[in-house]
Amino acid sequence: MQHIHVKRGVCAALAAFTAFVSAFIGPQAVSAETQQGALGTQKPAISAAYTDDLGTVYDGNALQPGSYDMVISVSDLYSIAQLGFTASYQEDLLSFDLLGEELLSDTAAYEEEMNGAVMDRLNGTFSFFLVTENPDKTVLSDNGADLLTIGITVKGDAPVDMQDVITVNTDPNLTFIDVDYGDTQGDWPNVVFDCYALSAPESYQATVYPMTCDLSPDLTQYYTVSAYIGALAAPDDAFGTYATTGATVSIETENGTPISAVTDSTGKFVLEKVPNGTYIATVTYKYGFTRTFTIIVDGADIESDTMIGIVACNWDGINSNITTSDISTYALCINASVGSDNYDLGIDIDRSGAITASDMAVCAGFINYSASQIDYAEVVLTF
User: Do 12-214 and 222-382 show the same overall fold?
Assistant: First the structure.
């Protein structure tokens, strides 16, 4: 069954209203490609947040038993012509308050141009709808909106993941967003709406664009951390002098998630999606002695010009000592320049574009040093 002007689940009174509007205005001729927020140019994301009476936000991935307001919202959405949301839920773990909900259409900003209702909230079924009273659509002032606030009670004696407790129906006839009454296919009035939906079954005879729905979104705030890794020019240097390309910087989050980055041609690394916390970062490099340093993330990105120094002339790569073996490896590349078959960027430690005596001089400064003898300067990166 294809949804036409009002989809399945919309109350009879609203269906009659919308049918009247449809018959009066007919299909719209405005080109969607020329409109702001045209269908297919955004990726709406439906999500939920859970708050108590004091406004404290709780994690829907592990929501403790108790009473909450569930706020279902949508982001990255310019307008609504019709919106339907249908789901099932586990009655032994969840119940909905019978009174007191607030739909977008109940708010002062939209009550004059939208209608809506919660259709089901009992016996394991939950659904609501919104529909514009305008001829084409209702524009959302913030490119998104809170669609519904409704009281819930989590039952039992253990935390639950709300994405598992509530299962959203992915049928585009039941869970969908139409952004403009002009986005139709077929002959009027038996038209089918192009829409945003969670699935695109072949049986649906119009165009479906993707949207997402996560009722227990990750509340963790993430940040980026960047700085530089560079080769030490001498054993007593505190920081690096020459950019090191291809070094790996890695950390592990509190929950065991590894995060790593490889340095670019300037020696820069960028760690992404780093939560708040204190981390011991490890630097590894094929020609280097492994070292660690500290990163403290506290509510902001870290973008540092610090060049964290490493010994980067362990060219033979077979032990943790700088010896004549490393000098022998250097000798195989001496006088090679960029583009030569035997040119090695890692041995061109000063990044001059050619492997020369100055590279050897760096290595000579570390001769007979082992990794255990290197006392790296303490580095703490923070905002």
Answer: yes
Amino acid symbol at 88: S
pLDDT of residue 191: 85
pLDDT at 11: 40
In CATH terms, 12-214 corresponds, of 2.60.40.2470, 3.40.1190.20, 2.60.40.680, 3.90.420.10, to 2.60.40.680
- Cβ–Cβ < 8 Å for 195, 105: no
136 CB neighbour count, 10 Å cutoff: 18
CA distance 54 to 209: 38
Q: What is the Cβ-side half-sphere exposure of residue 123, based on CA atoms within 13 angstroms? A: 2
Pick from 304, 381, 313: which is nearest to 349 by CA?
A: 313
Determine the pLDDT at residue 3. 57
- Measured from the Cβ of residue 361, the count of other Cβ atoms closer than 10 Å reads 13
Say if residues 173 and 203 touch (Cβ distance below 8 Å).
Answer: no
Do residues 118 and 86 lie in contact, with contact meaning Cβ atoms separated by under 8 Å?
A: no
Tell me which H or E stretch contains 15.
helix 12-25
pTM for the model stands at: 0.68
pLDDT in tens, 144-176: 999 999 999 999 999 999 999 999 999 999 999
Domain-wise residue ranges, the chain? 12-214, 222-382
Q: Which CATH architecture has domain 222-382?
A: Sandwich (2.60)
From CA 262, how far away is CA 285, in angstroms rounded? Answer: 10
Strand pairing of 166-168 and 82-89? antiparallel
pLDDT at 190: 80
